[in-house]
Design the sequence.
């Protein structure tokens, strides 16, 4: 029942859960809830970006956009719930000043279990474009014998409900925030969650403590300035509706956490939601780094310039753009103390309580990729495979193909869930799902496999990647040709769809 918010970006690249279909830009998140009467349900929140759509005149003489949507939930090929509908934008008199965004919310009653959720979306006014179709797993798991907790629903706003509607829960109208990304122009994070069966499990009239806080995603370090609590009496359904001021929250990846504790302070239920923050107001600053005192820190023992340069270079796969720029522009000289200060600040920003542990854990991974991917003068972290491993973590599945006839050696890495550790400002929705990377070795001598294609946002996306793999026997000057001719034993396309 722990469920991270899933995000889709539709418009021709990926799934953050982020995607891209024809030219529609849309964001989809979902959350799971439970009811005493009807059981569990899954709620979807779809935000469509108006400027990515075609608006046409309707019978009222106004301009309007529309998308056709299909949602299917199935188990082992058997459909358990489904809906097909059209979603219309607000009407506008003039498109020259932009087209409005619009939001849709739907609920699907589903029993406990794991489902394949298939989403199809298409611009109704662009019938020549192929619909975008994607399938991803969702899970529902609510117990009657334990205290349960819903997903954490992120909110754009909430108000007391005047009348019950599709946005209404527990007497409030909840406007969903359809993303997990919070740029610097958003100063607060609002959220809602429900707790189930507390009266049954801990007893009628017993007290509950609901604590909520933000922690580092990488190291699970709790941020003391971002925590709160709410005391309630146990009920069939308890709700938590709260918010944080995040104006000073630095750029980074975080978890929003809700814990439910009984009177003995024992955790009865816990839920987390991944969020990402970009905050230029708390950007890397030369004067701040120079002001750091490192004499009594772990970096004070790093007095060898070559070793420290090497350590700093190894950070590049997980460095933000501002950190890369700072290291390139400010650390080229022989100022040992500045390099110590930069190195300490890098890890302190990731684990304020134990920066040395964060570094040692990362360095263990660096040594691992160096051992596996070193190649003729290139350290493992300088290779494409080493960089991807450090930036996104170990793949869930890694498939090697080095004996396929006519093909150069290649590898396909698959990530079921992927988080970019570089904290790039350009990556508004950092969590992605079901992403693959294709590497190949064009020289057959070194161990330096080159990344030639990926579905992940911000990575190289090359529709002609199969031509590179089979280039020994296939030469094509036609830039419109994306597929290699059939080869004996050629399985690259099948291997990409179903790595093994």
Sequence:
């Amino acid at each position: 029942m722990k469920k991270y918010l899933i995000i889709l970006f539709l418009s021709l690249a990926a799934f953050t859960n982020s995607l891209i279909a024809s030219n529609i830009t849309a964001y989809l998140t979902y959350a799971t809830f439970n009811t005493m009467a009807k059981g569990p349900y899954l709620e979807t929140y779809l935000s469509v970006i108006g400027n990515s759509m075609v608006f046409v005149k309707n019978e009222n003489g106004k301009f309007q956009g529309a998308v056709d949507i299909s949602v299917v939930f199935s188990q082992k090929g058997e459909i358990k719930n489904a809906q097909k509908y059209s979603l219309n934008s607000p009407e506008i008199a003039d498109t020259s000043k932009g087209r409005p965004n619009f939001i849709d919310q739907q609920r699907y009653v589903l029993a406990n279990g794991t489902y394949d959720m298939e989403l199809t979306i298409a611009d109704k006014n662009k019938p020549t474009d192929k619909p975008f179709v994607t399938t991803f797993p969702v899970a529902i798991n609510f117990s009657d014998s334990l205290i349960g907790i819903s997903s954490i629903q992120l909110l754009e706003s909430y108000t007391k409900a005047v009348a019950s509607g599709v946005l209404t829960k527990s007497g409030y109208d909840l406007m969903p925030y359809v993303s997990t990304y919070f740029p610097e122009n958003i100063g607060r994070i609002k959220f809602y969650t429900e707790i189930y069966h507390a009266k049954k499990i801990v007893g009628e009239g017993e007290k509950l403590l609901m604590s909520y806080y933000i922690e580092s995603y990488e190291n699970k370090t709790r941020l003391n300035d971002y925590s709160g609590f709410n005391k309630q009496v146990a009920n069939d359904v308890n709700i938590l509706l709260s918010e944080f001021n995040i104006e000073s929250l630095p750029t980074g990846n975080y978890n929003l956490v809700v814990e439910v504790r009984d009177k003995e302070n024992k955790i009865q239920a816990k839920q987390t939601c991944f969020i990402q923050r970009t905050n230029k107001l708390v950007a890397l600053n030369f004067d701040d780094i120079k002001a750091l005192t490192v004499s009594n820190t772990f970096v004070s023992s790093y007095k060898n310039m070559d070793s420290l340069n090497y350590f700093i270079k190894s950070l590049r796969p997980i460095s933000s753009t501002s950190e890369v720029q700072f290291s390139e522009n400010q650390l080229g000289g022989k100022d040992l103390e500045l390099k110590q200060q930069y190195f300490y600040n890098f890890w302190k920003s990731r684990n304020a309580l134990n920066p040395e542990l964060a570094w040692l854990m990362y360095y263990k991974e660096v040594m691992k990729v160096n051992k596996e991917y070193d190649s003729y003068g290139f350290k493992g972290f300088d290779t494409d495979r080493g960089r991807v491993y450090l930036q996104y973590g170990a793949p869930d599945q890694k498939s090697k193909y080095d004996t396929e006839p006519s093909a150069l050696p290649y590898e396909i890495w698959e990530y079921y869930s992927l988080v970019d550790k570089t904290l790039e400002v350009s990556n508004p929705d950092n969590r992605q799902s079901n992403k693959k990377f294709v590497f190949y070795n064009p020289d057959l001598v070194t161990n330096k496999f080159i990344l030639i294609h990926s579905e992940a946002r911000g990575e190289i996306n090359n529709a002609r990647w199969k031509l590179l793999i089979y280039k020994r026997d296939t030469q094509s000057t036609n830039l419109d040709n994306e597929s290699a001719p059939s080869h004996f034993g050629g399985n690259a396309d099948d291997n990409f769809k179903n790595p093994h």
